Structure formats: C-alpha cells, structure tokens
Amino acid sequence: MKDDKHVKRYEDLRSARFFAADDFRSFGHRSRAMQMGLSHEDWDGKPIIGIINTWSEAQPCHMHFKDRVEWVKRGILQAGGMPMELPVHSHSEQFLKPTSMLYRNMGAMEVEETLRAHPVDGAVLMGGCDKSTPALVMGALSWGFPFIYLPAGPMLRGNYAGKILGSGTDAFKYWDEKRAGTITDEEWKGIEGGIARSDGHCMTMGTASTMTAIAEGFGLCLPGASSIPANDVNHKRMSAACGRRAVEMVWEDLTPDKIVTKTAAENATTVAMATGCSTNAVIHLIAMARRAGIDWTLADFDRLSREVPVLANVRPSGKEYLMEDFFYAGGLCALMKELGDKLDLTAMTVTGQPMAVSLEGAENYNPDVIRPLSNPVYKEGSLALLKGNLAPDGAVIKPAACDPRFHKHSGPAIVADSYPELKKIIDDPDYPMTPDHVLILRNAGPQGGPGMPEWGMIPMPKALLKDGHRDMVRLSDARMSGTSFGACILHTAPEAYIGGPLALVQNGDIIELDVPNRTLHVKISDEEMAERKAAWTPPEPRYERGYGWMFTQHIEQADKGCDFDFLKTEFGKPVDEPVI
Ligand code: FES
Ligand code: MG
To answer: Which range is least confidently modeled, 180-194, 404-418, 517-531?
Structure first.
C-alpha cells in the first residue's frame, strides 16, 4: 500500500529493469529466480531488498545473524518487498590476521560492488564487530541507494566467579595481573570461559559499540537500535522493523545523501565524544564522512572534543558499567536526549523523520550510567588530537582512559622498530627503565603494520609491573583496541614506515607530551631532524603482488581515514549503473 511519501513507482526501480522487461535477459532473471522456487508473486511490483549479511563461522560477534536474517526477511515480506540475502566478508576482529583493518577497505569495495551488481533497490546492512560497521557504511554510501544499518548488538555482561567482566578491558587487566603473578592459571581459564558468554559484539564502549553508536548518530539506524543487546528479544523485533523500513525507504527514495550530511557528521562525532569513544572512531568516522563527500578532519574532532563531555559511564572511559547497563538506562536515545542542543535534531534519519522525532519519548532511567551534562564522567570529550614535530599530521590520545599525571609529561625514549623487538623489551624484568620513560613502537602504521594493527596499547613492561606500576606513556603509529586504556599515543602521522618523524627518534631523545595544549614533540632541533631524515633509508617493499601490494600502493594515512585514494568521492566520475 503506497502512502503520500512514496515518490517511486515500480517501473522506476532498478530491480524492475531485471525482472519486469519483456526481453531475453529478463527471461533469464525470472527463470533463474523460479529455479530457486520463487514465483511472479515474489517480485511483481515489489522492491528487492539486499540483505548484506556478515555472518561467518569465523565471526563470533555475528553468530546470531544466521537466525536474525530471517527476522529481517520477515519484515521485508510484511512490507511487500522481496528479500535477497547477500553474504559478504565478515571482518572478525579476533581471527583476521595480521589485522582486520587491513581488510576494511576490501570489505567496503565488496559491499559497494555487491550492491551495484545485483538487482536490489535498497539494502539492510548487518554488522557490528569493529571494522564491519565502517566497511558496510562506506561501501553502501558509495553505492548511493537507500539503506539502513542493523547493528549486531552488544553481548551481555561477562561473568566469572561472581565478578562482572568487560570485553577487552578485563582481558588486558587480568593479563597484566597474570604476568605480575597475582592470579592463578585456573582463574585465568575461568575468565576465558566467562568473558564472552552470549551472542553479540564486545560489550564495553569499545570500537564496536562506538561505531554502531556513530551509525545511529549519523541517522542510519532505527532509534535506539545500537544499544539493544544481541540476545534481547527486542533485537529480533528491531531486525524485522529494519526490513520493513528498508522497503519504505525505497518507495520514498530516501537515499543516503539526504541523511549523511555535514550536520549528521557533526552529530555523529558529538555522539562519539559523549560515549567516551574508541580512538578508532576517528579513523572510521573520517573515512565514512569522506565517502559522503564531507571533508571531515582531525580539527573537527578536536573542536568537538573540547565542547562535548563524556556522558556514558561505560568502561573503559567510565568506571563501572557495560553496554547491558547502558541499554537498561535508556540507551543511546537517552544519551542523545541528555546532549540537548549539542545535537542538531533537524538532521534527517532513516525513519524519514528528523532526529527530534527519534528522541521523542526517550528517557534516562539511570543518571549514574547515562550522566546529565551537569555531572559528566569526564568534562571534555574522550579524545585529544596532538600535533608537533613528532606528528605533523596528528596523533591521538584518550586522556579519559589514562592516569592524569601523564597529561603533561616529558621523558626519554626507548624505541622498538618492530613488535618482536618490543616484546624483548617488555618481557625483560631487568630492562633498565623508569615510569618516566616513553616506550615507542614504530613501523606499525597503515603501511608499516601493515594495516595499522591494534598494537598501540603496548603491554606494560615487566620491569615496571614488578614494582607495581600500571601505566606509562607509550607512543606508536599503530591503533589500539577501543577497549584499551592507558597513556597511549596512537595514529602518529605520517607513519615511520614512510619516513615520518617517528622513524627518526633515537633512544634517549626527550619526548614531550602536553595534552592540555595538544602538543607532541621530540626535543631535537630542526637541523638535527633534517640530518637524520637525510640519513634515513626506506624499508624494502613488503608485497610484490596481490591485495597487500594494492593496499600499500593506495592506502592513505590515519588523518585521512586510511581509505584507498581511488575510493574517495572526489576520485573520478560517478560509477555508471550496470547495463542489464
Ligand atoms: Fe567483535 Fe570485539 S571482537 S566487537
Ligand atoms: Mg576491538
């Protein structure tokens, strides 16, 4: 049943060109659809909705998608559409080596081309584990037809021996304790079995929860969708609602350019800051915005970081709670309501209504979990963007997650050129160092890693752990897990592998960090820096063929979102619709 918002007729749809024409090709499409048991009643006059499913047996965070996709299909059928499930790369954070980030752009390309090549008019994107959200959204934005994002939902709280466990955060914490000898092997095994005990993505405010909140902040999810735990039955109802809504979006021609605007990028970044977001948010949000033709930069993050306080009292930036608590407290809609006029609620969303309508009825049921502006967890945003002679194109730190005494710090460098070299340093209980030293890992950036692995939360060295120290300044061109914590400076750009200043630091150089003034320096003269640069030789290329070769030829630096240079919106002319 069409309503007055419908602007598309069936004949206008992409899928009608595949199925409705009286020609030889359409005969092929119809006869092969019939081979699958479908009949004319399945497609005549109906939009086809592609369901981009990232289920795989190597993706624990999306295990429930095998079932959940049936609920999406139910919704599509209810609304008079035809579902077409299209599996794509699953971006498992745990199982992909050397790092899932190496494959984010490959996933984005796969999503874009899968949607473009198939007879679909709109899409439901099913994702949640860290890189899957940006990969799906980047690809679908470049495709440009109506889509809705269905977040996987967080796991329930972890539990072992009566203790609540948070993804990542507690693994790192107890690993340090195990290395310090304060917990037993049996306890460690118990934690292994209890920390991930349900479907869903990590349930701290790590990269996954941050990225799904950002998708909702962009207006790409149904209201509140990103906060629903994967195993809460509301998630099934939300999945069906995504299916229904995707059909309507096609009739309404609600394309992503009407949603992902500069205002939406401002809102999404504001939401990210208020969640106490993962540092990875910076790279992915920039990449997503750039796919929509929005020039979003580190300066935008720094500006909003100074204006927006952290309101979500969820680990690791918050003290106690996890995503399950956040959901019971009212979820992301309650947090957005608390943000008041820091959000522009005129922004359009996938509902076809402005954000203001999404927040009607939102309520904060627990102001300790979702803090009001008057009582934030942290009065400034969760990220600080640093610049200086060590990071001319920027670096990132999460002041909310590190010991405040390191916010202004100066200390001598200990440099590791690779992860094996670093391991030797951190595993040596007698390595000569003090908590004032700055531990550096380089050649771990977009090209150096390759793929910018999450090595940036360098484990605390045994030499300091044994004396009870649990934090020190650590510096790299890598990323770190969104569930990490500590005084870790990340994303240093340009990276060492391509000759950025980080490549030129020597043991004993004094590193100066000043978070309040947003600076990061190495205390050497410009002349000395120039001399060292002249003596620097680039490393041998790591790949001579394949995806790795393409990756290193075309990957951009962290401050540009690590997209491929040839996938940017301003690259070349728009892609033609396929000839059918
Ligand atoms: Fe998938 Fe953390 S491992 S979200
Ligand atoms: Mg992660």
So the answer is: 180-194
User: Is any atom of ligand 1 closer than 6 Å to the C-beta of 252?
Assistant: no
CA of 95 to the centre of ligand 2 (A): 12
pLDDT in tens, 217-232: 999 999 999 999 999 9
Task: Report which bound ligand comes closest to the CA of 278.
Answer: 2
SS3 at position 122: strand
Name which of 494, 391, 488, 397 is nearest 438 in CA terms: 488
- Please calculate the CA angle 246-250-251 and round it to the nearest 5 degrees: 120
In DSSP terms, 314 is beta-bridged to 321
Structure tokens at 165: 């466990």
pLDDT tens-digit series, residues 496-524: 999 999 999 999 999 999 999 999 999 99
Our answer on whether the CB atom of 199 is closer than 6 Å to any ligand 1 atom is: no
Q: What is the ipTM of this complex?
A: 0.94
CB distance 119 to 15 below 8 Å: yes
Which residues are near ligand 2, the ion (C-beta closer than 5 Å)?
Answer: 93, 130, 206-207, 481
Amino acid at 463: A
Residue nearest to atom 3 of ligand 1 (CA): 93
559 CB within 6 A, ligand 1: no
Closest CA to 442 of 428, 458, 429, 430: 458
* pLDDT score at 2: 54
pLDDT band at 1 (very low <50, low <70, confident <90, very high): very low
**Pairing status of strand 384-388 against strand 391-397:** antiparallel
Residue 395 predicted with pLDDT over 50: yes
Residue 242 CA, chain-centre distance (Å), reads 21
d(CA 105, CA 102): 7
Q: Are 285 and 137 in contact (CB under 8 A)?
A: no
Whether ligand 1 lies within 6 angstroms of the CB of 201 is answered as yes
Closest atom, ligand 1, to C-alpha of 61: 1
CA of residue 572 to ligand 2 center, whole Å: 33
